[in-house]
Amino acid sequence: MPEGDTVHQAARRLHSALAGHSVTRSDLRVPKLATVDLTGRTVLEVTPRGKHLLTRFEGGLTLHSHLRMDGSWKVYAPGERWSGGPGHQIRAILGTAERTAVGYRLPVLELLRTADEHKAVGHLGPDLLGPDWDPEQALGNLLATPDRPLGEALLDQRNLAGIGNVYKSELCFLLGTTPWLPVGELPAETASRLPALAKKLLEANRDRPARTTTGRDRPGQRLYVYGRAPRPCLRCGTPIRTAEQGDGSRNRPTYWCPSCQQGPTP
């Protein structure tokens, strides 16, 4: 599931493949961009912002994409077989003489002037893996709505950018509180730990091919709670539980240990 760490990895792969090279093939397969041709433009850089990707071209243009739940960008060498999914799932192709980047299942793809990037990402809070990271601002954003459940507040990219459903569940476990605890009821010491711990989790995984929050590399033991119901908690042995969280507009399975985490539950 793409979250801040995997988006940073994707940006790094795309930047390495495309930056400094002229586009020789441009194919954007969404209706509003069907007539756009980026051929001949040099890719200046590919940079992440939270869970968003910004591919900047000479001439002041930026291709903005978002992976959401199952989008991906794959990079292929000349002659290499494309294997990211069936052809009808391809939404973007950006090719150079040496590499081809293919975007699969991209729910968000838009072209805008680089000067207008704020229209796409200006609403985001401090980026956990970005140069704008500000732990005090992030915590202040979270505490500004004290009645909101912690899990929902963590997923709100306006508070802090980069946390998705996996890190939401894992962070709440490490803080010892359920995702349904109102933010304002967090003990002061726990609240003060939150920004640094969130950053530590994402930084620890920004270069890892397999995400882990436990420090273990064995399958089934890389995460404390996410995706582990009803298996036993790695810390206390109690069966992990799962339930939906949010307004129902998206599939948000949430995992927690009823013994290690304190607070309200469904």
Automatic annotation (TrEMBL):
It holds the Pfam family Fapy_DNA_glyco. SUPFAM superfamilies: Glucocorticoid receptor-like (DNA-binding domain), N-terminal domain of MutM-like DNA repair proteins, S13-like H2TH domain. Keywords: DNA damage, DNA repair, DNA-binding, Glycosidase, Hydrolase, Lyase, Metal-binding, Multifunctional enzyme, Zinc, Zinc-finger. Its EC number is 4.2.99.18. Residues 224-262 form the FPG-type domain. Residues 2-79 form the Formamidopyrimidine-DNA glycosylase catalytic domain. The keyword Thylakoid does not apply. It catalyses: 2'-deoxyribonucleotide-(2'-deoxyribose 5'-phosphate)-2'-deoxyribonucleotide-DNA = a 3'-end 2'-deoxyribonucleotide-(2,3-dehydro-2,3-deoxyribose 5'-phosphate)-DNA + a 5'-end 5'-phospho-2'-deoxyribonucleoside-DNA + H(+). Belongs to the FPG family. This is DNA-(apurinic or apyrimidinic site) lyase.
